[in-house]
């Protein structure tokens, strides 16, 4: 075989997968939120785990989140190839095969659930198993392509990590963990719909029934405003539970005031105005929403640390 033939085969063949491609398969940016909120749930829960067990719990919760990401990329490869935002992902880019993504997702699901159960308890493991199932099957395989409420209902998958962290310590569920779940659940629709407002063509071309596609941008703006108003009392209510404190309540008041005002600015705009300034208000809301959860859960952990140090009780 000539050198020219070899070179042609190398150039036209599929790109060879690198370690980083397999990491991207697990959606590391999403995983960072999973890890952070699960860690918050673990640290603010009454009781404690040894540092080694706590690290192990977070590791396998993270792997469970990665398993969900891999299964999502396996199933959604067809629409990921169409959308500008996702066409560079490992499977649609041809760097990782669909079979590899499915295999990795399934194996990580089994390993993460089994090891979390062995390391902590089976309530936490059961919640992790349900989270993976909900994201991979209920959201990815069903809701995402079936209803404009895909983000609303599907948001539950991303809301479970703090409940899992809490359950890893306590072995159960409480009003505090339910409200941490509620905070993420109510945040998800305005967060994603703000993105959809300036990424509508992606979802339209991929035939994903995002609210912007099925009901138009005016209705999407109204829903962003409504869910932002519903989000605020959940966030503030969490501050009135046993895990709240002065830092969290102060942060929640400021953050939700900003969030509501930015959502109101999005709601009051018409499409011509938004298009004229390249959807500046929508992008401001979306960018702020990226830090919203990290700041809330960071404040919860700060209050927990000061409470443990005896600075204040609640």
UniProtKB/TrEMBL annotation:
It is an enzyme of class 2 (transferase). The keyword Transmembrane applies. Its EC number is 2.5.1.141. InterPro entries: Protohaem_IX_farnesylTrfase (IPR006369), UbiA_prenyltransferase (IPR000537), UbiA_prenylTrfase_CS (IPR030470), UbiA_sf (IPR044878). It is a multi-pass membrane protein. Coiled coil: none annotated. Pathway: Porphyrin-containing compound metabolism; heme O biosynthesis; heme O from protoheme: step 1/1. Its main location: membrane. It comes from the Bacteria. Keywords: Cell membrane, Heme biosynthesis, Membrane, Transferase, Transmembrane, Transmembrane helix. It catalyses: heme b + (2E,6E)-farnesyl diphosphate + H2O = Fe(II)-heme o + diphosphate. Pfam families: UbiA (PF01040). It is found in: Cell membrane. The chain crosses the membrane at residues 30-49, 55-75, 96-116, 122-143, 150-169, 175-198, 224-241, 247-267, 288-309. Gene3D superfamilies: UbiA prenyltransferase. Carbon 2 of the heme B porphyrin ring is defined according to the Fischer nomenclature. PANTHER family: 4-HYDROXYBENZOATE SOLANESYLTRANSFERASE, PROTOHEME IX FARNESYLTRANSFERASE, MITOCHONDRIAL. Interacts with CtaA. Belongs to the UbiA prenyltransferase family. Protoheme IX farnesyltransferase subfamily. NCBIfam families: cyoE_ctaB, PRK04375.1-2. Converts heme B (protoheme IX) to heme O by substitution of the vinyl group on carbon 2 of heme B porphyrin ring with a hydroxyethyl farnesyl side group. This is Protoheme IX farnesyltransferase. It comes from [Roseibacterium] beibuensis. The gene is cyoE.
């Amino acid at each position: 075989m000539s050198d020219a033939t070899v070179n042609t085969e190398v150039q036209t063949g599929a790109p060879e997968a690198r370690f980083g491609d397999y990491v991207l398969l697990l959606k590391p940016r999403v995983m960072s939120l999973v890890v952070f909120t699960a860690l918050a749930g673990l640290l603010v829960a009454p009781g404690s785990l040894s540092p080694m067990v706590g690290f192990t719990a977070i590791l396998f919760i993270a792997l469970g989140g990665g398993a969900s990401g891999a299964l999502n990329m396996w199933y959604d490869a067809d629409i990921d190839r169409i959308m500008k935002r996702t066409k560079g992902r490992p499977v649609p880019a041809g760097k990782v095969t669909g079979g590899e993504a499915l295999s990795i997702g399934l194996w990580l699901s089994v390993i993460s659930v089994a090891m979390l159960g062995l390391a902590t308890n089976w309530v936490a493991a059961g919640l992790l198993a349900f989270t993976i199932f909900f994201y991979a099957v209920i959201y990815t395989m069903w809701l995402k392509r079936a209803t404009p409420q895909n983000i609303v209902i599907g948001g539950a998958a991303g809301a479970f990590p703090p409940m899992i962290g809490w359950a890893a310590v306590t072995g159960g569920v409480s009003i505090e963990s339910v409200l941490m779940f509620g905070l993420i659940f109510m945040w998800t629709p305005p967060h994603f719909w703000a993105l959809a407002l300036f990424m509508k063509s992606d979802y339209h071309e991929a035939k994903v029934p995002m609210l912007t596609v099925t009901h138009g941008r005016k209705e999407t703006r109204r829903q962003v405003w409504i869910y932002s108003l519903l989000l605020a009392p959940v966030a503030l209510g969490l501050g009135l539970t046993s895990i709240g404190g002065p830092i969290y309540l102060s942060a929640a008041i400021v953050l939700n005031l900003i969030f509501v005002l930015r959502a109101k600015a999005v709601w009051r705009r018409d499409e011509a105005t938004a298009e004229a300034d390249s959807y500046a208000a929508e992008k401001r809301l979306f960018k702020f929403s990226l830090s919203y959860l990290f700041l809330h859960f960071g404040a919860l952990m700060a209050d927990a640390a000061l409470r443990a140090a005896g600075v204040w009780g609640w």
